[in-house]
Automatic annotation (TrEMBL):
InterPro entries: Peptide/Ni-bd, SBP_5, SBP_5_dom. Residues 107-498 form the Solute-binding protein family domain. It comes from Pararobbsia alpina. SUPFAM superfamilies: Periplasmic binding protein-like II (SSF53850). The keyword Metal-binding does not apply. Keywords: Signal. One of its GO terms (cellular component) is ATP-binding cassette (ABC) transporter complex. This is Solute-binding protein family 5 domain-containing protein. GO terms for biological process: microcin transport; peptide transport. CDD domains: MbnE-like. Gene3D superfamilies: Dipeptide-binding Protein, Domain 3, Periplasmic binding protein-like II. GO terms for molecular function: peptide transmembrane transporter activity.
Length: 617
C-alpha cells in the first residue's frame, strides 16, 4: 500500500499517504488542507457528496477475506499477520482524505491544521470530543506516545522510513501537537497527519506492567475508531461491532459512513471455496478480480431472480503496479539484458485472450491511468533532470518511452524469444548440456514465490514454459499468506508476484518504494532491493516538487527510468470493479472517484432490506 507502509498501516492512514501531493504548503489554519488550490469542501460542510448522509444504521455485513488465519490484533508491528480490516475499522488518524479529490485532507482527530509559512512544521489541534474506546479523552501526549512507539525499536521499521523527514513531535499543550520537518516538502503535513493513534493503555497489565508493542497479540486495541472487536477465531473468522459510544459519528467526515452494527470477516484460503460459499449465501458481497470467474461462474438461479446483483462500478484510480518482481539482491538479475529477456518471455496477449476474456489491458507504466504516466519522448523539462544522470542510464531512456512486448501479428512470441536469446547470449548465457548456462557452467534457474492462487499458477505455468524454450528453469513455489509475508518482509525470494497499490498523486512514498535507503530495511516497500543513484535523485525530485508541473515532470522522468530498468515483468490492470452483492444491501447511487471496492462497501453501504438499493442525498 504506500509511503513505505504497504502492508502495515491501517487504511485510513494509508489513504492520507496515497493521496498526498508534493508542493509548497499554504500557511493557513483550518479544518482542511489542499496542496493546489482549495479543498472541495468548505469549512462547515456536513458530509461528503459520495455518501448517503441518512443511511440507516443497523444489520450485519458478512464478507470474505482471502487468507487462512491471523495471529494478532496489531497491524502496526512487523511480526505476524494482523486480523483483516482491523486498521480501517479501529485505528484513526489526525486527518483523512476525501475520495472524490486527489489532493485534499480534512480533520478527523484534529479539528484545526496549521502549516507554518516556511513549510517546516505543521500544528494540529485535537478535536475536544475525540475519545478512545475505553472512554478516555484523546490528549496530545497520546499522539506523542503513538509517534514515539511507532518510530521506536518495537514499531515496524517501515515507519522510520515513512517518517524519516520528521525531526520531532512537540506537545504544545494538552490539545496541540507540532511536527517539525527536516526540509520543506508539501507531502510531509499529510504524512504527519496520517499517524495512526492508539492509547498508552493498550497492552497494559493489571499490575501496571506492559506488553512490549511488538509482542501484542490478542490484547484488545484501545483506539478511537468506529468499531470494536466482538468475537474471533484465528483460523475461521472475526467479527467487529459498532461502538455505541463512537465519538465521531456526527463528524462531516464520518456522517453516512460505517453503517452496519456488525461486520463479520470469514476466512477463505481458496478462491473456489470462497465463490461457492458466496453463492450458497454465506456472505453478502464480493469484489471479483478474476475475469474468468466473473464471466463464467457468477451465474445461476440467484442471479437470474435478482437475489444477487452483478454490477461493474467504474473507478478513476491509478492502476496498481501488479507484476512479477525480481529481487535485485540476487546476482542473477543484476544484468539489464537478462531482465529484458525475462520480460520478452511473458505473453500477456495469450493470458488476456485465454484467461481474462479480453477484460484487461497491459500495464505500461508505474503510474498507469494517471497524468503522471510517461508517454512519447522526454520533454525539455524531463531532459533537464535526466541529462545529469546520463552516465548511469541506458541510452534508450532518452528516446520514446519503452512499451511492453506484444505477440499480436505482425509480432509473435517466437520473435520475442529470439530477441531474448540474443540478449542472454550478450550477457554471457548460452545453451549447452540441456540448459542455459553462464561461463562457469551454472544453469539459469530461479524460484517464483506466490501464495498459490489457481489463476496465477496458470499464468506462471505458461511463463515457465516460455522460459524453458530459452533453457531457463523456473520453479513455482506456493506458500500460505503468513509465510509469504514473512519471506517478502525479509527479502527471501528470487522472483515474486506482488501488487504495489496505486497512488493517485505520487509523493514521498516513491522514496520508500524505490529508494536505496529502504532497500535494506526489512518490511519496506523496496521489495526489489533497488539501489540506484539516478532513481534516488528522481524520487527526491518527486517528493520535493513545488508545483503540479514540476511533479508531472519528475514522475515522467522517474517512470522512464523504472520502465527502462526492466525490474519487473508487468501484468495487467482494469479501470472497473466487478462486484456481486445481495439485493438487501444498499449503496450510494455512484461510487467516489478514487476508492477500493470492498473498503467502499465497508465504509459507505448499508442494510437496505425493504428499501431502495441505491439512493443518496
Amino acid at each position: 500500500m504506500a509511503a513505505g507502509l504497504r502492508r502495515i498501516v491501517p487504511s485510513v492512514a494509508l489513504a492520507c499517504l496515497l493521496y498526498a501531493m508534493a508542493g509548497l504548503p499554504i500557511a493557513r489554519a483550518a479544518a482542511s488542507i489542499a496542496q493546489y488550490g482549495t479543498p472541495k469542501y468548505p469549512d462547515g460542510f456536513t458530509h461528503f457528496d459520495y455518501v448517503n448522509p441518512d443511511a440507516p444504521k443497523g444489520g450485519t455485513l458478512m464478507l470474505a477475506n482471502n487468507g487462512a488465519s491471523f495471529d494478532k490484533f496489531n497491524p502496526l508491528s512487523l511480526r505476524g499477520v494482523a486480523a483483516p480490516r482491523i486498521g480501517e475499522l479501529m485505528f484513526e488518524t489526525l486527518i483523512t482524505n476525501s475520495s472524490d479529490e486527489p489532493n485534499s485532507a480534512y480533520g478527523l482527530l484534529a479539528d484545526d491544521i496549521r502549516i507554518a509559512p516556511d513549510g517546516l512544521s505543521v500544528t494540529f489541534h485535537l478535536n475536544p470530543a475525540a475519545r478512545f474506546s475505553n472512554g478516555d479523552k484523546l490528549r496530545a501526549t497520546d499522539v506523542k506516545y503513538s509517534y514515539d512507539t511507532l518510530t521506536g525499536k518495537h514499531g515496524s521499521p517501515a515507519f522510520k522510513v515513512a517518517f524519516q523527514d520528521i525531526v520531532k513531535l512537540d506537545v504544545l499543550d494538552d490539545s496541540t501537537v507540532r511536527f517539525t520537518f527536516s526540509r520543506r516538502n508539501g507531502d510531509l503535513p499529510y504524512i504527519a497527519g496520517g499517524l495512526p493513534i492508539f492509547s498508552p493503555k493498550w497492552g497494559q497489565r493489571p499490575d501496571g506492567s506492559r506488553v512490549e508493542f511488538d509482542q501484542l497479540a490478542f490484547e484488545q486495541p484501545i483506539t478511537t475508531g468506529p468499531y470494536l472487536i466482538d468475537q474471533y477465531s484465528p483460523g475461521r473468522d472475526i467479527s467487529y461491532k459498532r461502538d455505541p459510544h463512537y465519538w465521531g459519528k456526527d463528524l462531516p467526515t464520518r456522517r453516512g459512513m460505517y453503517n452496519f452494527d456488525r461486520i463479520v470477516l470469514k476466512l477463505y484460503n481458496d478462491d473456489v471455496a470462497r465463490l461457492e460459499a458466496f453463492k450458497a449465501g454465506e456472505f453478502d458481497a464480493v469484489s471479483e478480480n478474476r475475469a474468468r470467474n466473473w464471466v463464467r461462474s457468477y451465474t445461476g438461479e440467484r442471479f437470474d431472480d435478482g437475489e444477487i446483483i452483478k454490477q461493474a462500478f467504474p473507478n478513476h484510480n491509478g492502476a496498481n503496479v501488479q507484476a512479477f518482481y525480481m529481487n535485485l539482491r540476487r546476482p542473477l538479475f543484476l544484468d539489464l539484458r537478462v531482465r529484458r529477456a525475462l520480460n520478452l518471455a511473458f505473453d500477456f496477449e495469450w493470458a488476456n485472450r485465454m484467461l481474462f476474456y479480453k477484460n484487461y489491458e497491459r500495464l505500461q507504466s508505474y503510474f498507469m491511468n494517471t497524468d503522471f504516466q510517461a508517454t512519447g519522448s522526454p520533454s525539455p523539462e524531463e531532459l533537464k533532470l535526466l541529462k545529469p544522470l546520463r552516465k548511469e542510464l541506458d541510452p534508450s531512456i532518452f528516446g520514446p518511452v519503452q512499451l511492453q512486448s506484444v505477440t499480436t501479428p505482425p509480432h509473435s512470441l517466437r520473435d520475442n524469444l529470439r530477441q531474448a536469446r540474443e540478449l542472454l547470449a550478450q550477457a554471457g548465457w548460452t545453451y549447452r548440456d540441456g540448459a542455459l548456462r553462464n561461463a562457469a557452467g551454472e544453469p539459469f534457474r530461479f524460484e517464483l514465490l506466490d501464495t498459490g492462487s489457481a489463476l496465477m499458477q496458470q499464468v506462471a505455468s505458461v511463463y515457465q514454459r516460455n522460459l524453458q524454450k530459452l533453457g531457463i528453469t523456473l520453479t513455482f513455489r506456493s506458500t500460505d499468506s503468513a509465510l509469504y509475508q514473512q519471506r517478502i518482509d525479509n527479502f527471501n525470494f528470487d522472483m515474486t508476484t506482488l501488487v504495489m497499490p496505486a497512488v493517485q498523486v505520487p509523493g514521498t512514498e516513491e522514496i520508500g518504494r524505490w529508494g536505496s535507503k529502504a532497500a535494506d530495511t526489512p518490511g519496506s516497500d523496496n521489495v526489489l532491493g533497488l539501489k540506484s543513484h539516478a532513481v534516488d535523485v528522481l524520487t527526491d525530485a518527486v517528493a520535493s516538487a513545488h508545483t503540479l508541473k514540476d511533479l508531472e515532470t519528475a514522475t515522467h522522468a522517474l517512470d522512464r527510468v523504472l520502465i527502462g530498468g526492466c525490474y519487473i515483468v508487468p501484468h495487467w490492470y482494469s479501470s472497473k470493479f466487478n462486484v456481486a452483492y445481495r439485493r438487501t444491501l444498499g449503496h450510494p447511487a455512484s461510487p467516489p472517484l478514487y476508492y477500493q471496492a470492498e473498503s467502499w462497501i465497508v465504509s459507505s453501504w448499508w442494510d437496505a432490506a425493504g428499501q431502495s438499493t441505491a439512493s443518496v442525498k
